[in-house]
Amino acid sequence: MKRRPDKTAQTKADLKQAFWRLYAERPIEKITVGQVCELAGYNRGTFYLHFHDIFELLACIEDTLLDGMTDCVESCMRRLRKDSGKLSCIAACKDVVLYYEQNKPYISVLLSEQGDPSFIFRLKNNLKPLWREYVIGVDAGRSEAEIDLLLEYALAGTLFMISRWLSDPRGVSARELAHLVYDYSIKGIR
Question: Are residues 180 and 112 in the same domain?
Fold first, then answer.
């Protein structure tokens, strides 16, 4: 039986959406394939045509987000090669913050206590080489161990700020958050 790509894509999207509605409310251990299928309106066999289990479905969502985040950051960093001044850095930070905001339903859950800890680890590891090259610089005059600690500190703080902002912006705009990220995460380790 030959599957239609548009129908397959829609089915996977429906299953992901149903899963996410459940995951936003409860831990992954309390979500069953049956619950996802019931919410999405498909049978279990359809689920297993696309995903091995709930964890693979979550990994698929996380991988898509990580790829998008990495692309966004790489695009910003390419621009910073031309001009790495404060205003360019803040504009780049704002673009990244806007990406997080556009994907808020996913990112706010993944960066929360309920989220998958391995997602944060993978996100930081994706971002470290970019920050290493464009924020700290190739010849930083520090040991690799010191640079790794600085990057861990800056990225953990940045992700925590973004997570808190997504859950409760309290009138702080994306531009204002970008200034905070620049002042406390980027300028501080430069």
Answer: yes
For 184, the token pair is 């406390």
Dihedral of alpha carbons 47, 51, 52, 53, sign? negative
Please tell me the pTM assigned to this model.
Answer: 0.82
- Residue 79 burial (C-beta neighbours within 10 Å; 0-12, 13-18, 19+): middle
Are 43 and 69 within one domain? Answer: no
Distances (CA, A) of 117 to 49, 62, 124, 154, 166: 27, 11, 11, 18, 18
The C-alpha atoms of residue 48 and residue 33 are separated, in whole angstroms, by: 9
| Same-domain check for residues 109 and 148 | yes
In contact, 104 and 20? CB cutoff 8 Å: no
Distance CA 91, CA 97 (A): 10
Q: Tens of pLDDT along 63-114?
A: 999 999 888 888 888 888 888 788 888 888 888 889 999 999 999 999 988 8
* Distance of alpha carbon 41 from alpha carbon 95, whole angstroms: 36
Find the domain containing 146 and state its range.
61-186
